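I am still learning, so would you mind making up any protein sequence you like and the tokens describing how it folds?
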Amino acid sequence: MSTKSIVEGAFLSAITALLFLASFYIPLLGTLISFLCPLPIIILCLRHNVKVALLALFISFFLVTLVAGPFQGLIAVLGFGILGITLGIVIKKKLSILEILLIGSFASFIAKILLMFIGLWLMGVNPLLLGLEQIDQGINQSLNFYQNMGINPEQLETYKNSLLQSLELIKIAFPAMLILSSVFDTIINYWVTERILKRLGYSMEPFTPFHQWRVGHSFFWSYLLGMFLLIINTKYNLPVLQRIGVNIQLLFSIIFLITGLALIAHLFQYYKIKPFFFWVTCGIVFIQPLLSLLVTWIGILDVWIDFRRLFFTEKRND
């Protein structure tokens, strides 16, 4: 390896280790930082080769192990290293964006499954569910706080049941959340890599602009399948069908929510409304369940109606 490869590899190894440790120890912000952990490995694959990237990954594992312990080092390698190496290889081969996203998402999903089984085998703990334990503790703390404030016991019981049902739904929908997080990991890392390497003189195929995002009819039929399974479960009480139906519904509801927001982004761009107001709209949609449901149904209807062609194209022709 050249001196340049060694120097860049060592530097980006340290960056990878720092990103991982920050994602592990900084509350809330750490979740956002975690999406950037594979980035240095991807850059090394593209600027040099897989051997340099693997060496950097090993050094990152060593550094994280020294600071936080071997299990955290293993999380760094499996949780972020596999995705980084995979994306680096497929991007360097100049595959299409769809192929890159599919392969990257699959690699991220497999890495998470491996991490889950190794965690269960070594420590009896699923590292992917640690966040749920924190949510459970938070629920208990909230209930104790309201109880000390003298809240009506009936209201407190209603509030407790609502929170516990939400937590149970999260546990049931864990596979869908795993798939979505794998896809999101891949999209974020590809997008950030494309932005950074563009400044370094490398060309990568950019994403289709967000305001043009749409999905095909197969997504609607998949969503309908989830609804059908839930209806069967209510009649015959089959827990397996309930789990499958909930996961399908959650997965495709979020997809349609995103495509609904893409349609709103198209509307804002068409009327030349500043992006700031779009982000404010997104925030309102996410915190208001009724608005979230409305935007989801807009995304579903857009599969069949194509609002962009129906309204915006005609106005431009006029």
User: Anything to note?
Assistant: Residues 12 and 40 are 6 Å apart (CA to CA). The mean pLDDT is 80. Residues 210-317 form one domain. Residues 239-270 form the longest helix (32 residues).
